[in-house]
Amino acid sequence: MIKSLKFGRDDSWEGVVIDKSRGMLDGSNMYHFVEVRLADGEPVKVRIDRQLWKSIAVGDRVVKRPGADPAKG
Questions:
Q1: What is the pLDDT of residues 47-72, one digit of tens each?
Q2: What are phi and psi of 8, to 5 degrees?
């Protein structure tokens, strides 16, 4: 089961992208998501910004450090 988590600014995680998606959840704004398999094997769905979404592909590593936005790693 995939969990959709709202990570805080001070959280950290890293994992491998297993899927990308986007959608207009509220009818007017486009939201970008990646499904990431974390180091412990748990898949999570995370919202990311458009620029990062466009620059990554399935199989790329994404890293989130405390106090920073997710980045290609």
A1: 999 999 999 999 999 999 999 989 99
A2: -85, 170
